[in-house]
Design a protein that fits this description.
Layout (H helix, E strand, L loop, with lengths): L1 E7 L3 H11 L5 E8 L6 H15 L5 E3 L13 H4 L21 H11 L4 E5 L4 H9 L7 E7 L13 H5 L1 H8 L5 E4 L1 H4 L3 E3 H7 L5 H21 L3 E3 L3 H8 L4 E6 L1 E3 L10 E3 L11 E7 L1 H13 L5
Parallel strand pairs: 1-2, 1-4, 2-3, 4-5, 5-6, 6-12
Antiparallel strand pairs: 7-8, 9-12, 10-11
Helix pairs in contact: 1-2, 1-10, 1-11, 4-5, 5-7, 9-10
The structure holds beta-D-ribofuranose and calcium ion.
GO molecular function: purine nucleosidase activity
Organism: Salinicoccus cyprini
InterPro entries: Inosine/uridine_hydrolase_dom (IPR001910), IUNH (IPR023186), Ribo_hydro-like (IPR036452)
């Protein structure tokens, strides 16, 4: 089994990403779930992670991380995720408790302790990952891959910047420049997996509690996306990371150089993706640009079905 740490800010699509990683269909060993300030305050993201852990009956540590970005003030996305960060479904208050310690130390320790390499799966701002790499650069050679959701050739938070990168562009810059194998799922590809009303309808037929939870997430998330962007449903951005880990062939990639903008007046947090190779710089990113939508939804439905009858 491939060892992963899910670093997230759940978050509707973060929750879905956890569900995929934890399913029987996946061959992943989840070392832990770490949380970061992002969609809402880190404490709320942690509570949501614990709720998802309880729903799935998962036996993995949940460790809380950074409360704020490295340099900038926090920004949150309640207009997309609601006040709780995961509005829509009503889950009981978590029975599980958050584990002691800080996510950054947890990430460093897990990587150093692990016999083999570890894959990091960040689906929120990259603050924890940057702090871990800064604190213990020796972990670099034991990180197999960073599979992240963020960025793209257009923005959703500003015209130029995607939310996860915008919230902590300094952290993102540090991660993309780290020399680690980065596989990136940005808006160019995540907007190809929109949970439209048809998809919502289809998934609502999955008759188990995980399917029900996901359906409720998608209804709320879809309505927010419709109000905010005029979309027909919500793109399940973060799910691309763990779907890729289940089945890499779902996606097509270009190996490109990518730079994170940290200075621009109108472009702070943008990712400059060198698709045509105009910079001549050495590629640092495996940029996902296309997904097989039919195969994606088929597999996703099978993942939900794999949770069984209850
Ligand atoms: C990203 O921002 C968050 O709102 C989502 O969970 C996703 O990680 C999309 O821009
Ligand atoms: Ca997220």
């Amino acid at each position: 089994a491939r060892k992963v740490i899910l670093d997230c800010d759940p978050g509707h699509d973060d929750a879905i990403s956890i569900i995929i990683a934890a399913s029987k269909m996946s061959n992943l060993e989840i070392l832990g779930i770490t949380t970061v300030a992002g969609n809402v305050e880190v404490q709320k993201n942690t509570t949501n992670a614990l709720k998802v852990k309880d729903l799935l009956g998962l036996d993995v540590p949940v460790v809380q991380g950074a409360e704020r970005p490295l340099v900038r003030k926090s920004e949150i996305a309640t207009e997309i995720h609601g006040d709780s960060g995961m509005d829509g479904p009503v889950l009981p208050n978590p029975k599980s408790r958050v584990d002691d310690g800080h996510a950054v130390d947890f990430i460093v320790e897990q990587i150093l302790q692990s016999e083999g390499k570890v894959t990091l799966v960040p689906t929120g701002p990259l603050t924890n990952i940057a702090l871990a790499l800064h604190k213990a650069p020796e972990i670099k050679h034991k990180i197999e891959e960073i599979v992240l959701m963020g960025g793209g050739t257009f923005g959703n938070w500003t015209p130029a910047a995607e939310f996860n990168i915008y919230v902590d562009a300094e952290a993102a810059k540090f991660v993309f420049e780290s020399g680690i194998h980065v596989t990136m799922f940005g808006l160019d590809v995540t907007h190809q997996v929109i949970a439209t009303k048809d998809i919502q309808q289809r998934l609502s037929k999955v008759d188990n509690r995980v399917g029900k939870f996901v359906s409720e997430l998608l209804v709320f998330f879809g309505d927010m996306y419709e109000d905010h962007f005029g979309f027909e449903g919500g793109p399940i951005h973060d799910a691309c990371t763990t779907m890729y880990l289940l089945k890499p062939e779902l996606f097509d990639f270009k190996h490109v150089h990518l730079a994170v903008e940290t200075k621009g007046e109108f472009t702070y947090g943008a990712t400059a993706v060198d698709l045509l190779g105009v910079t001549g710089r050495i590629p640092n990113t495996h940029f996902a640009y296309q997904v097989d939508q039919e195969a994606f939804w088929d597999l996703f439905e099978a993942v939900l079905e794999s949770y069984g009858e209850v």
